[in-house]
Design brief:
signal; binds 5-O-phosphono-beta-D-ribofuranosylamine; purine biosynthesis; GART; globular; Formyl_transf_N
């Protein structure tokens, strides 16, 4: 199956998916990696000769034009699945039409708890003793799509945001690799299965 990954940062989740695809038995190949900025994470793809693209909001007159440009970049890759792996933008209607229910997002909390861009900080601030990682289908909202997979991560008493986030990302990597394989193998998308 043809997978396109979108990222904004270091791309540790994208790297984990790329490592998984090194196994010929893994039922997916990453055909391109895109970003909304010249993100460091793109290097993981370049290093493997995988095409990359940057679709930056500031290169477009407005958000609608950016959304349409991103949709065109994604569609040009002819993906079976699009994976948002630390992609820090809310995609617009053009992308949603282009991907349908074939776009998933990984989030460092047990959705619906702690949606949004500061999930780890919010869980700590709320005094959560258990948090986790979620993989959801992307819809028009912010982290509101159907939950495809979740896994718990303990919060330790002396955790700070970065220590907890690293512990979550270790689980996110596993959960994402497993869930992408399940989705492309069974074609099950948009159905909630914990
Ligand atoms: C991940 O925890 C992702 O869920 C969140 O930001 C982090 C991205 O990490 N949105 P990386 O860029 O893959 O290292």
């Amino acid at each position: 199956a043809r997978v396109v990954v979108l990222l904004s940062g270091t791309g540790s989740l994208c790297a984990a998916l790329l490592d998984a695809t090194d196994d010929p038995a893994y039922p997916a190949d990453v055909v391109a990696v895109g970003a909304d900025r010249p993100a460091a994470g793109l290097e993981h793809a370049r290093h493997r000769g995988i095409p990359t693209f940057v679709c930056a909001l500031r290169d477009h007159p407005d958000r609608g034009a950016w959304d349409r440009a991103l949709a065109a970049e994604i569609a040009a890759c002819d993906p079976d699945l699009v994976v948002s792996a630390g992609f820090m933008k809310i995609v617009g209607p053009a992308v949603l039409v282009a991907v349908g229910d074939r776009m998933v997002n990984t989030h460092p909390a047990l959705l619906p708890a702690f949606p949004g861009a500061h999930a780890v900080r919010d869980a700590l601030a709320a005094g959560a003793v258990v948090t986790g990682a979620s993989v959801i289908t992307v819809d028009a909202g912010v982290d509101t799509g159907p939950v495809l997979a979740q896994r718990e991560v303990p919060v330790l008493p002396d955790d700070d945001e970065s220590r907890l986030h690293e512990r979550i990302k270790a689980v996110e990597r596993e959960l994402l690799v497993e869930t992408v394989a399940r989705l492309v193998a069974t074609g099950t998308r948009g159905h909630s299965s914990r």
